[in-house]
Write a sequence for this structure.
């Protein structure tokens, strides 16, 4: 059985060592990177299952590392950062992270989040193996097995969470999902302050789908209730 490999990218050696110690106790194989450039090289040369990234790293920051990872890989990414504002957290999630923890942190909570993200990733992989049908409407085509989207034949570059939101809505056309429903199903976590996060993802998703230019909107807001796919 393949051993799960986790990348820790943080220029604070003490923090990386602490996380690595706890992950090793859980049976994970750990690779460490002291800056963003090393993190990118590690992803290119190793089979990484999950990445824990600091944001403010030397050479290349965590945002750029995430952008480059997302070009080829849908692995779970957890930001672990000293940036603590709600806007920082939303920015991290919008840029492609699956979870966000702030420093100082409880190592056991981080391990719990790592385990949760790996479980979710495993379930997504299993469901992808079911050969789910392509969803097509209004020039939009969603390929769930490849996790890709095209609009009038042109590829649409979506983050993993944007794809998950679109696929969820498109799988149940006309059904109205509240922000709470979307957050719980896409992020797999209890809903607390997730409304803004969902709203920001929906806004970016609409822009990428060129909704401003469409007479027939694909994602419709039902005011006071939530969102629905109008395909």
């Amino acid at each position: 059985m393949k051993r799960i490999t986790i990348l820790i990218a943080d220029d604070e050696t003490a923090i990386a060592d602490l996380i690595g110690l706890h992950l090793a106790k859980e049976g994970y194989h750990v690779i460490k990177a002291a800056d963003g450039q090393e993190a990118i090289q590690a992803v290119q040369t190793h089979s990484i299952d999950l990445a824990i990234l600091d944001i403010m790293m030397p050479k290349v920051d965590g945002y750029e590392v995430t952008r480059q990872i997302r070009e080829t890989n849908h692995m779970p990414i957890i930001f672990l950062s000293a940036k603590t504002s709600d806007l920082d957290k939303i920015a991290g999630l919008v840029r492609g992270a699956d979870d966000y923890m702030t420093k100082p942190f409880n190592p056991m909570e981080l391990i719990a989040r790592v385990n949760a993200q790996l479980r979710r990733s495993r379930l997504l992989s299993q469901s992808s193996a079911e050969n789910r049908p392509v969803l097509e409407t209004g020039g939009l085509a969603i390929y769930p097995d490849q996790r890709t989207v095209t609009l009038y034949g042109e590829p649409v570059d979506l983050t993993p969470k944007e794809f998950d939101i679109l696929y969820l809505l498109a799988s149940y056309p006309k059904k109205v999902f509240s922000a709470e429903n979307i957050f719980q199903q896409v992020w797999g976590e209890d809903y607390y302050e997730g409304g803004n996060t969902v709203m920001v993802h929906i806004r970016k998703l609409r822009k990428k789908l060129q909704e401003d230019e469409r007479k027939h909107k694909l994602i419709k807001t039902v005011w006071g209730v939530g969102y629905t796919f109008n395909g």
